Please model this.
Amino acid sequence: MTEAVNLCVGLAMGLNLVALTTGRLPSLIRIVAVQGMLLGLMPLLLEHWAGPIVFLMVLGTVTIKGFVIPYLLRRAMRAAHIDRDLEPLIGYVPSLLIGAAGTVAAMAFAGRLPLLPEHRDTLLVPGAMASVLTGLLLLIGRTKAISQVCGYLVLENGIYLFGLLLVHSVPLMVEAGILLDLTAAIFVIGIIVDRIQRAFDSLDTRKLTTLRE
Amino acid sequence: MTGGLVAVWALGLQAVAIGATRWPRLWLALFLSGAATLLGAGLLALGQGPLWEWRSELAIGGEPLHLRLDALSGLFLVLLAFISGAGPLHASVAWSQRAPAATARRGRTWWSMTVLCTSAVLLCSNGLHILIAWEGFAVSAYCLATLERERTAVRAAGWLFLAASRLGTLALIAFFTLLAVRTGSFDLGPMRACPDLAPLFWLALVGFGLKAGLFPLHVWVPSTYAEAPSHVSALLSGVVGLPPLNGFVSEWLIALGLLESAAAHADVALITAPALIALTVSGALVLATFVKAVSVTFLGASRDARTRSTVREGDWRERAPMLALALGCVLIASAPVAAWRLIVPALEEVNPLWTGLAPPAELVTLGRVQVALAAARVATTLVSAACVRSRGRRRALTLHCGLAAPTARMQLEATSFGSIATSWFNWLLGPERRYARPRGAFPQHAQFAERIKEPVLERALVGPVALVLGASAWARRRQHGRPQSYILYLVLGLLAVSAVILAEVAL
Amino acid sequence: MSRLLHALVSLVLLLGLAPLLPGIVGRVKALVAGRRGPPLGQLYFDLARLWRKDIVLSTVVSPGFWIGPAVAWVAVLGAALLVPIQPLGAVISFPGDMLLFVSLLALARFATVWAALETGSAFEGLGASREVSFAVLSEAALVTALVALCVQSGATSLEAMLTPTSGAAGVLLAAGLFLVLLAENCRIPFDDPATHLELTMIHEVMVLDHSGPLLATILHGAAVKLMCFTALLVSAVLPTQRLDGWLAALAWFGGVLSVTVAIGLVESFMARSSFRRVPLLLTTAFLLCFFALLVAWNEGGA
Amino acid sequence: MMELGLILVPSAAALAAFLWPFERSRPWFLIGVALVHVALSLTLLVAPPAAPLSEWIGFDPLARALLPTVSLLFLGCALYGVPYLALRRERSNRAFVASMLAALGLMSAAHMARHLGLLWVATEAVTLASVPMLHFNNSPRALEATWKYLLVGGTGVALSLLGSFCLGYASLYGGGSGDLRFISLMAQGEDLSRPWLLIAWALLLVGYGTKMGLAPMHTWKPDAYGEAPGIVGALLAGGVTTVAFAALLRVRAVLDAAGEAAVTSRTLLFLGLLSTLVAALFLLATRNFKRMLAYSSVEHMGILAIAASLGPAGVWAALFHVWNNSLTKASLFLSAGNVRRAAGAATLDVASGMSLVTPRSAALFVTGVFAVTALPPFGPFFSELQIVRVLLESGRGWSTAGLLACLLLAFLGLTRITFSVVYGRPSAAVRRHAQRFPETPALIGPPLLLLGASLWLGLFTPSVLRSAWKEAVDLLFVLP
Model:
């Protein structure tokens, strides 16, 4: 069981690093979608009792993160006629180095944190931290709105991963609420991205600097 | 009927007057009766009337209302009543004919508010309520001073006044809260019994000193007095400076004290003798300055043809209050003993040791000498007037040393007038000079202007202000509109909070 | 009754004898220059003549123009009444009257300057500017001298504090007060009352536009002021109080006469110094008085 | 059960308004719901339920201390909203009205949430519900502001979710069940795992601090408040920030129960002072009077954070200040909205001499600025005085001096901008533009009412409110 979890989380961590290096938006969207699906499947590995509600949730998560959101992002990308984020504020190589260092630091930091015995051998905590860091790095370092949305998704994936630690203690109602909220947030962001594309005829956030002091 | 109740009645009248600003005559009647009542209250308190205190269950801002009228507040009430009563009479012309109706009404409203708030400051005995009344006074005074706010200079001066008074209020907030922390309540009653609170009074000094225009807290004074209507300046200077005695008599008392210490050969004379000399020098400088200002403004011929045609003399309503106030000054100067009697109960409030202080014999003699000299002045003036009336019929141009066509612009300017005295202080004042020397055989244009930087506003404050504005500009550049950086700030905030937590845990 | 008599006698002496002093000064100057000069009582004739004359007023002046000289004259007279005339003593005397003395002189100055500025003339403005500016220094010197006297005697009224001293303090004080006298009365080297170049005058230029009785008042006031300062100097230096009766009066008049002659001699042998040097001279006067104060303090403390 | 009405009535009304087919009558939903909400919350304020509904959600003392101000604020906004939306007929108000009502319901839910996860869900939902309001103007500028609001605010909210999970793990590691109900977290007390607790606090403070607008996480605020209609600014500045502040108070109570009061105090004081300083500096620099209001909001959030760092008396003063700030700031946003509409722009280059164009709104605006800068006798003066007093009582002289200095700078900045907007001469273009937007009593009344409420609150604070705040403080500082 632990191996399966670790495999999934390890894959997700690898995808983080790939996401930091890619300049092509389609592949970034694909990476984030795969990561989302991978993590969406995790409850099946962790839950001892996989009732229909859990299945429903997994199905919902996978559908939304793997298909709906990527579809929205691709549509916006095509409308804007871009497929690259060529001028990142933090270059690809520095991003990769920072990301790798962050992953290492997350491993080391998680090792020093007090963890319950059943979590001590899993990669859940370092994986969550690395994803959060990657997400922040993408949010800070990229200039295209789509890349930033992807960064936000990676950040959320990290938090989701951390939430799996509490999967037995957080009531399902609340968990469903959290998931619903996160999804709605992505939807709203997607809509706004779409409108930005229409209003500015671009998805370059460097054009969004009218509001300043 | 005690003075306190009369004072409350006066406050009520003032409040009613605010409601009647739409009808100038009604307002004037209400306001003046309010001022008269205030005067009565002050006189009652100054007379042998007992200390009046009133505590109410009614809480304003969580503090029970506590009013108190002693002789000291009574004295100030009397002064306030005089000055505030004279103002509207002087202004009734300005506020009814020349200014638009709206300005006139605003003026009436804020005048009433100012007087109301000032009386409230004098009556309240709870720090919180004093703060409320004090700030109310600041805002009303600001509104009064900027009645003609169409002019930029007026707005700038008003803003400076407001800023300075805000600084004062913050100092007072600190003062009263510290007091409340030490004594447990905002009520000033317990304060009188706590001598160990003395260091706090520096804060109060800053707070009240700003409004009183004490150096170096005077930054707002010159521009505000210059830009506000004259009666407003009079109220501002009269209310918050509140000179306990008039001009010479008060200075004479101070100087006499200094002199006696010198004569007694006390050690303190090492300080007081130089102080006396410095007082003389400053007095002479003030004389020079005053002569300069008055002469350039009022005397000689008008430099500007436009002024000649537009400015006209005010009527009796404008002049009468000025005359009344001037008469008051003359009376105090020539009857110092009476003024002394008026002051002593108030002084007892400040320091109980001064109870029953008899006017010194010197003061009695001084009063007589002043009266005699005044009589002599009147007599010689009458003789001089008679001479001029009988033999001064001929009129001629002022002597100009043969200049054929003198113009009014050839009179001495203020800058030139003061140039000798200021030149001695160049090393200290560092005046800015602008020349345009006359050139050629028929010079068209020549100019000389000298300006001295204001020491606090233009020198001492320049550094800190530049620092704050620099920091502000730096912060402003950080808000540049790039959301990427905003998220970076968020991360930095997280790091900063973590650092604070780590530091706290490590301690 | 005797006080009233005393006051009347003093008034007559002051008002009557004052115009003699400028005459003495003029005669000394003339003698030194080898001329006969005007009669001693020339100023009396001038005053009488002026008093009968008409007044010409400038078109721009207001009543301050003719109130000024009147007020100034009363103020100077009041100040003079505070100075003791031996052996009679001062007419008015009370603790702290020296402050009144200084302030009355300032008032006189203020009234004169005001009247001068009424005309709007650039000349008179210049004169007024000089007058008020130099007054800052000369008043400082005067007050320092008075404080020195005060420290020395322990009294605060002019009559009581004018106890003459000998030694260093006396010399310093005499020199300082003499300089103040010259400056306050616009004598050479501070001002030249006899010049005809308005640009270089102080006092005379301020009264250019006054005529008739007004000018008479001003001239008489100036004479009283000279008298007053001379008396102050004499009382501060000569031990006249120790003598009695006629001897004191004689000594006092002798002192006044010699100070007046000294003024004449100074005017004969010195030239008017340039305006830039005037502050220097006045500062010297101030320092002399200040040293006198220090010496007096030292002696009093010992 | 009555308290559920506070959530359900607005939510149901939001749905109904969304389906309602008539543009002109739809805004009246706002007033109807606001009146019901005010009636409910005031009834509950005077006669609170004996016990909270459940351990998950309920009208507990903290909700009682804060929720009524949201109701009153919303009533003011609703009264203003009807005439405002009548002026904006060119835009459909369907999404606007529905999301306003939804935001009210969600804010009520957030105030009444007694479970950290539920609280988070409600807060995030409020954030999302305010998006349609933010880009109601649908201009590129509004879109840009919305984007930044979503991106920065979303990141902050995500961090607070991470923080919530960390708190849960602290409980789990400490032998608890990982239950996120505040009551059980507080009961666990010192058993909570300390490292996780501190991590959770840092994340939650930054997360909810972003929502509150504490510096340096405040960057979305000027953009959002500057571009949104005044009514939205009022709701965000007076209501949503309050929700985040209440969340921080509840989390802080957990930390205090675990014996970490020193850490919470120190960090809150740090962020509070930093916020007042940053706000003061920006107030000196900005040239847009609606952004000015945003920075003023940052300043007041800083003051709240400072007050919250000071123990029971400080929190009491903070609750008082929340009321004053909500009502005053809302009034200010509404009057500023009037001025902005008449001027056509909010920058100082355009808006000038507005006292001649919109005299009543300009007078209200100036009075509001005076009120918000704590000039007596308006409410903020009394609460800030109380805060200064508690600061001095706790012996933090230097912090007090710093706070007072920042207040002075903020006052200078605020008055500078306000006076240059209000006084001076209006340009001909502004005069022409303003003729389209006459000042009607319906647009003046609501800000006037709110300002009056602030005045009344300061001078004569009702005893029921005083006791409500006291009980909330007792709830937060009960030691197990």
Summary: Residues 242-247 of chain B have pLDDT under 50 and may be disordered. Residues 152-183 of chain B form the longest helix (32 residues). Strands of chain B lie at 52-60, 63-69, 394-396, 432-436, 447-451. The two ends of chain B are 65 Å apart (CA to CA).
